[in-house]
Design goal:
Blueprint lengths: L3 H7 L6 E5 L4 H12 L3 E6 L6 H6 L5 E5 L5 H14 L5 E4 L21 H29 L2 E6 L2 H4 L6 H24 L4 E8 L8 H4 L9 H8 L13 H8 L10 E4 L10
Parallel strand pairs: 1-2, 1-4, 2-3, 4-5, 5-6, 6-7
């Protein structure tokens, strides 16, 4: 007979201190709620800590804090790490969800690829790729010293299947996927086999960054691009933030103790569909 106690133990996070970059966003906030519900202490790193105020009000006292940060500024991240240790304890887990796209780095009928401004391209590549590498350096060092840790990078379907219009975003997310695989090997071979690094590649979820691409100006219908996505997603819908939770919890838990260096699509079948 299956041991239910074993299953409960796998998803008990009461001894975990989790740093979550971008944790106050649409997708991140739902994941934070789940982690808190399973006993974890969570530190959200965000440029705008006020965005986490509602989450903090919901959270059990002392288990959630938000810190003003910038994932592309290593000195700020190091200050964050020192403060988090004082407030919540030694970090055991890092979730990198900060990132996104912007209009300036997106091709359109009025803005060709050849005219995309360098500043916009650099900004998108920096926040998605460097904004993953730097937190891994800062908090990964802690994990290397304690011979224990878990890193989850939030990648994108654009990393697996390059999408039209978003060259900087797709390229930087592809870089994140490659980096995830590289870091998984490096941490296991150089520091401890118990330090695991994996990624989740969400399909299409409605966020602040992609709303202008997926919904029409009234916000109650799909753009042609949004409709095309639905047509190419076998499940016929956009993802709900809660759709990411079970995959995240599995990768964070001892239930996936022999899993490292993978990228898990959560995409309603988008990556499996050939379009015919």
């Amino acid at each position: 007979m299956f041991d239910k106690t074993w299953l409960q133990e796998q998803f008990d996070f009461t001894n975990e201190v989790i740093v979550f970059t971008g944790g106050a966003g649409v997708l991140g906030s739902e994941m934070v709620r789940a982690l808190l519900g399973l006993g974890a202490k969570v530190a959200i790193l965000t440029r705008r800590p006020e965005r986490a105020e509602d989450l903090i009000k919901e959270a059990p006292e002392g288990r959630l804090r938000a810190y003003k940060s910038d994932v592309v500024q290593r000195d700020i991240l190091e200050d964050n790490a020192e403060q988090i240790q004082q407030d919540l304890g030694q970090v055991t887990t890092l979730i990198n969800a900060a990132g996104g796209n912007q209009k300036g780095a997106t091709t359109s009928p009025t803005q060709s690829f050849f005219d995309l401004p360098q500043e916009a391209l650099q900004s998108v590549v920096s926040v998605n790729l460097l904004g993953t590498i730097l937190p891994c350096q800062v908090f990964g060092r802690v994990m290397a010293e304690q011979k224990r840790g878990n890193i989850i990078n939030i990648s994108s379907m654009a990393a697996l299947k390059p999408l039209t219009k978003i060259p900087a975003y797709a390229s930087s997310k592809a870089g994140m996927t490659n980096f995830t695989q590289w870091l998984s090997v490096h941490m296991a071979q150089e520091y401890a086999a118990s330090i695991r690094v994996n990624a989740i590649a969400p399909g299409f979820f409605l966020t602040e960054q992609n709303r202008f691409l997926l919904l029409d100006e009234e916000g109650d219908g799909y753009t042609p691009r949004g409709q095309s996505i639905i047509d190419h997603t076998p499940m016929g819908r956009l993802g709900d933030p809660k759709d990411l939770i079970s995959t995240l919890l599995w990768l964070l838990s001892p239930a996936s103790a022999f899993v490292t260096g993978i990228v898990v699509p959560v995409d309603g079948g988008f990556s499996a569909f050939g379009g015919i």
